[in-house]
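Input record, target 12 of the design panel.
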């Protein structure tokens, strides 16, 4: 076989390198990429993962009664960071006190991660009986002392610190009149750093990897999947991938099994190498494909 034929073979093999086909990802919101499964409209993403793109091109995360700007998204880790509410001018009360702070709908696949250090400010004495760290050495005092925007909180003697993610805080960072009236949050805070080096406030939220999309009929699925009843028994049907393809929850499409693609590709490359380099007795490679 002449080298040109080997090159043609190589060219034919190249598409196998891009094993996924992004079909249902939503369009960018302003300059922000909206990764699957996040959804800004009924025609893209997964409808259990709704976020909102406002007219100004800002991506917003809606909680039960409020919404917060999304400041970053890490699709590989299924995480996003929202900007917590700020303090009302010259008070130690956050603007979302009326909504009781950050309240996620626990029926949705989002939760507050344990990477958040939460500082509760302007608390009542009832908090002193809580498991939170409300001591005079608590980090919240260091924060208040070192943050000009939180100066008003210096007049509120009780504040508390804790790491989020326990079962009681995975859907709710609650502020209320009978508890604490303000809060802020930091992601992956290195508490040994001085306050001047702390990052901007942020609250990290994680999502569960999405199952195959819900369908009502075969026409809701693409050619690589069939609409079948979910064996998990939830009473819905989903677009399950056809044989030889597997569901990629990060892209939202059926992809060729990695083993299969890599196997064919390496076989073709080795074959091409043998032909082009014209090595007569090169050993024969066996390729075991796993579906
Ligand atoms: C603490 O919260 C109470 C109740 O909302 C408010 O009246 C008070 O002004 C707040 N304290 C400060 C220092 O802002
Ligand atoms: C959230 O909104 C619902 C209905 O709009 C209301 O009944 C509820 O009291 C609100 N809850 C909070 C904490 O604001
Ligand atoms: C929470 O989410 C579920 C599932 O989408 C929805 O049916 C329900 O109405 C939501 N609850 C509230 C209070 O918004
Ligand atoms: C509270 O936090 C401070 C500062 O991180 C720490 O020195 C102290 O031991 C903590 N107290 C309790 C009761 O956990
Ligand atoms: C408050 O901050 C100042 C300097 O910013 C520092 O000198 C002082 O020790 C701090 N006080 C407390 C109680 O941390
Ligand atoms: C949040 O959701 C993730 C993904 O399902 C899960 O692994 C984690 O345990 C949950 N965290 C909490 C605090 O519920
Ligand atoms: C189906 O999968 C194949 C192989 O992964 C791909 O080439 C094709 O574009 C996919 N078709 C659809 C409609 O996604």
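The sequence produced for target 12 reads:
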């Amino acid at each position: 076989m002449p080298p040109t034929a080997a090159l043609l073979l190589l060219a034919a093999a190249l598409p196998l390198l891009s094993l996924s086909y992004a079909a249902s990802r939503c369009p960018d919101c302003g300059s922000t990429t909206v990764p699957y499964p996040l959804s800004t409209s009924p025609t893209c993403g997964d409808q259990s993962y709704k976020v909102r793109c406002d007219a100004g091109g800002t991506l917003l995360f809606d909680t039960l009664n409020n919404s917060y700007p999304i400041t970053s998204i890490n699709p590989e880790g299924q995480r996003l960071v929202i900007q917590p509410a700020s303090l009302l001018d010259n008070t130690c009360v956050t603007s979302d006190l009326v909504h009781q702070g950050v309240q996620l709908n626990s029926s949705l696949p989002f939760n507050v991660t344990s990477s958040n250090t939460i500082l509760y400010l302007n608390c009542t004495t009832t908090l002193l009986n809580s498991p939170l760290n409300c001591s005079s050495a608590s980090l919240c005092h260091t924060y208040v002392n070192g943050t000009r925007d939180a100066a008003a909180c210096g007049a509120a003697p009780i504040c508390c610190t804790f790491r989020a993610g326990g079962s009681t805080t995975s859907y709710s960072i609650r502020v209320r009149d009978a508890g604490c009236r303000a809060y802020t949050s930091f992601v992956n805070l290195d508490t040994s750093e001085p306050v001047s080096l702390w990052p901007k406030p942020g609250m990290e939220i994680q999502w569960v990897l999405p199952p195959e999309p819900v369908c009502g009929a075969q026409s809701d699925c693409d050619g690589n999947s069939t609409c079948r009843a979910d064996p998990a028994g939830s009473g819905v049907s989903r677009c399950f991938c056809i044989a030889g393809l597997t569901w990629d929850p990060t892209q939202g499409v059926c992809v060729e099994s990695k083993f299969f693609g890599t196997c064919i590709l390496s076989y073709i490359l080795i074959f091409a190498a043998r032909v082009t380099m014209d090595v007569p007795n090169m050993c024969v490679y066996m390729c075991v494909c796993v579906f």
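Residues 21, 23, 222-224, 253, 255-256 surround 2-acetamido-2-deoxy-beta-D-glucopyranose (ligand 7) (CB under 6 Å).
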